[in-house]
Structure formats: C-alpha cells, structure tokens
Amino acid sequence: MGDEYQVVVVAGGSSKDLFPLVSKDVPKALLPIGNRPLLSYVLDLLEDSNLNNVSVVVAGHESGVRVGSWIAEAYHDRLQVEVSTVSEESGTADALRSVAHRLSSENVMVVSGDMVCDVPLGAIASSHKRQRAGLTALLCPRTPGEGCEASAGGVGTKEKAKQLAAADVIGLDSARHRLLYVASGSQLGKEVKVPLCLMREAGQVELHTDLLDAHLYAFNRELMLEALERNEKFKSIKRDLVPHIVRSQLKHGRVEGTLSCSAYVAGKARYCARVNTIEAYGDINRDVAGDAIYLTGYTVSGMNNVIHPSAQTGAKTAIGPQCIIGEGSELGEKCSVKRSVVGRHCRIGSNVKVINSVVMNHVTLEDGCLVQNSVICSNVHLQERVTLKDCQVGCGYVIGVGAEHRSEALAKKEKV
Fold this sequence. Notes:
By secondary structure, the protein is α/β, with parallel strands linked by helices. It has 9 helices and 35 strands. The strands form 8 sheets. It has a 7-stranded mixed sheet with strand order 5-4-1-6-12-8-15, sandwiched between helices. The longest helix is centred in the N-terminal third of the chain and has 14 residues, at 61-74. It is elongated.
C-alpha cells in the first residue's frame, strides 16, 4: 500500500482557536497530548499503516523549522518525511497546492495534523480502492453529549450551542457506502436542500448530524489536482474542495467512473478526535490519560495511571487513576492530582491540588496552589496559594502570591 499512496499531512502553525496554548515558540503540531507531541499520533498511525511517503505542510516559517527539527530527530529512521511551509494566512487547500508537484502516486491520503485516532488507515485505503472512488472520507460517530462534562479550560452553554450549530450535515445512501452530500451546519440556513438529481440517483438519502468529518480523505490524485487547478479561490479542503467533488460526482444524472465519492464510517469502538479548540485539547488529554491511554504506548500501573519511574512524590501525596506524571517531575507532601496530565521536570510544592487539568513541562507550582479545569503551558510559575479555575496560562507566565483567576486566558504579549 505504501507505493500506491502518498500522504500529505496538513499540520497548521499558530492557531487563534488555541490561544494562548499555541505560540511562535510552540506550534500546534508540537502541543503535548499525554506528554507526547500532537503530531506524533498521526505519524505513528501512518508508520503502523506502512504509509511511509509523507509530506508535512506547516503554516509559518518559524513553526516549520521547529516541526522539521523535531521530525528529523524523532523519525529519521522510521518514515520518509519532507517538511515544507506555507504562509500563516494560507488555507488547507493552499497547503495541498504547495506540494502538488511532489505527488505522483495514483492516490493521495490527506490527513489533518491535529487528529488523534486509532482507525486503521489500511482499511480506509482498501475501501477507497474497492469502491473505485475519487474521494473517500473518514466519518466518525459523534458521541452523545460529546464534551458536555467539565473539561480543562471550561465550556459553557453558549459554546455548546456554537458546536451544535457547526455540526456536519452528512448525506449517505442507505448502505452508508456512498457520500452524497456534505456541509457544515454553520454554512447552512434552517433548511437543507438536497439536489433532485441526487435523490433520483441514490433512491434514498440519509442525512446525518451524528457523524463527524474527521478531516482525513483519500483522493484520486488526478481528480483532486484538477479540482484545485480549476478553482483557484478554494481555500479550505473541508469547506471548498470536498463539497465540490461530492457535488461533481453526478454527471448527466448518474455517477461516472472515478467521480464517485465514498464514506468510511468508523465503528463506535474506535477513537477519533481533533485538537481544534481549547475544550477539545483538555478533553483529549483526559481521554489519553484514561480510556484511550493505549494510544500513548505507555505502561499503565495497577492504579490505572502512568507515573514515570524518575518522578518523585512526597508523603501523603495521592495521584489518582487516569493521570500521567512525566519524567523528572517532583511533587511535595500532601498533594492531590486527579484526572490530570503533569509534564516533564515540573516542581510542585506541598498541599497542591491539580484537578482535571493539563500542566505542561518545566512548570513550578508553589505550596498551596489549586489548579482546576485549566491548562498551564510550559515554564509557567505559580507562586504560593494561587487559585486557577477554568483558565489557560501561556508559556513563561508568572502569577503572584495568592492570586485568584477564573475563566481567563493569561499570556505574555508576543514580540512582533
């Protein structure tokens, strides 16, 4: 399969939706998920699927240099990866155009670099070939009440309403093999208009809002490149390119050849999520410290947690199940860590509580701090008795003694 496919990973760069977690120093692709860089989950999945010819496109030169250096060190003897950059203003379709000259295989798999997933890519590739499709999209079940629990960073009712409004509307045939219609809820009005010719061709169209477009697609290379070349204004793969190809599959009232579009619907037991919001970042970290911990490759203790052998804990300190404590971190006496990820080489004082949160690397939490439903980036220093609830703290930030913050994003101003 490796020779039949080339892979393009669209890895992004700095992301406004993930402020202040993402910065010039920490590109989105290198955000830690369960103390591993986000992009490592995609690259490991490709390696396991024998998809070794990979182009990674990063938005922004500085981000590209950092991502390229990390890949060169971590995957130099494992994958054939070429890293390139596009401007930060570029869309995902622009990222594809930028590597078009490198693509020569019959099929191209395009993967979002912010995906954490265990769906076997070989099965998607086989389905694409079996259906003789021009496009195959990975669709994953939307979990009922997805993200409704309190998560790292907090989420309110208005945010949930926005998420529901942006839900994907997916049209499939009754056998769920053919992709007949796709749109984001935010692009639609109160009505969904399905073309009559599509109804005639399919006989019956099932409209779903319980499926997520996972931003993973297998394309016939010629079809994909022709669509991009003819439509220079296309900026987004999901919003522009994919809907265009889905609409174009009906020609003279019937599907012809490689124009057909198919769906690969993952089973409910599969894990598939994208780190595209602050809430998702907290949720996915909690998942990979819990039921999805197999994705990290870590060895889990009898207490259902992961504590690095070099980590040290003081007397009467309790680390609960579904927690990860990174290499070289030290926790003082009478600390409590619940459903949280603590990064590498952190210094945590006594009587500190960390609940449902993500603490990145080289963070100092002095005595008596309370961190709940929050994300703390690397090199942050919380002085004594700081209380954080539903907050995000950017890299290198210092919070003074006894300060209390709720539902805030705290970050140093970046130098222009």
